[in-house]
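Workshop exercise sheet. Pairs work together: one partner reads the sequence aloud, the other fills in the structure field after running the prediction. Swap roles for the next sheet.
Pair: D.N. / O.F.
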Amino acid sequence: MQKQCLINNKSGRIKVYLPMEVEEETIEVDCDLCGRANHQVLFVKEGFPHRRCTTCGLVYVSPRLKRHLELQKNYGTGAMGEERLTAAQTKRLHREVAKIEPWRQLNRFLDIGPGRGWYLGAAAEAGWETWAVEVNASALACLNGLVESRIMPVPAEEFESPEGFFDVVRLSDVIEHLTSPRRVVERIFRSLRPGGLLDLSTTNFASLSMMINGPQWMYLNGTDHIILFDPHTINLLLTQIGFRNVQVRTRDFHLKRKLYHPEKELPPGSTILRPFRNLLDKTLFLTAYGHQLLVKATKPAT
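Structure field:
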C-alpha cells in the first residue's frame, strides 16, 4: 500500500494517501530525552524536519503526524520481514535466543514489537514463558497464527505488568517508532526483576552509512522513524532511567538510499567504498560507526 506525504508548513497539515488521499494534522514536540525545546534543524526529508536537541543531542522528527500511533497500528512496518525462515536463519535465531539463557530465573520473557514472532517462537521452544506487546494489525494476525504467547495488544507506552515480573525484555528495531521512548523504557525498567536484562537494537544515526548517505539514508522516514539514537543518546536514556552495565556495540554498513513518498530506491550516493563493503561489515563492529546499535543493559540487582 503506497503512502505519499507532503507537509504544508503553513497549515501544519500533511496530505497522506492510505490509499485514498486524506489530510493529516501534524504536531510540534519537544525532546523526549531531556524535555527541552532547544533544537536545531539538521535537514528536511520529504517535508519532515529532523531536529537535534542542542541540550542532550537526541535527533527527532518535529513536527510529526498527530495520528502517528494510529497509523502505526494500521499501516506501519510491524509485520515486515521474512514470511518463512531458511534453515540457516532458524539456526542463527536459536543461537541468539541461547544468549539470554544466563538471565533465566523467573522464566518470563517479554518481546515488545515482535513483528512476525520468529524470535518469540524460538524463545517459547527454548522453554520460556513468552509475552508480547504489539499494536500493528498485520503483526497481531501473524502472532495469533504462529505462537502461543500472552499477547498485550496495546501501545508500548501503555503496557502494564507487575513490578519485577520479567527476566528479559527485548526491544528490537522498535524504539525509533515510539512516540515516547522514555516512557516505554521506564515501564520496561519497572517490569524487570532486579538483575534483569534489556536487549535493545535500533538504527545508529552516527553510523558511517548515515554520514555517507545523508538525508537520503534509507532509515530516515518521517512517517515511521521519528526518534533516532546514537551511542551517546541511547546510553544517556538508559542510565538516566536507572539501568547499569550498559553495553553498546554496532554492526554493518551499507550504501542503501531511499525515498518513501512515493517509495523509490535511489542509486548509491557514493561508489568509492563499495569494493570494501565486506571488509567494512567485518570491522565496524569494533567501532561506534556500524549502522545498527546493539545494546544490552541490566537493572541493578539491589
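Discussion prompt: The chain has one domain: 80-257+264-298. What would you look at next?
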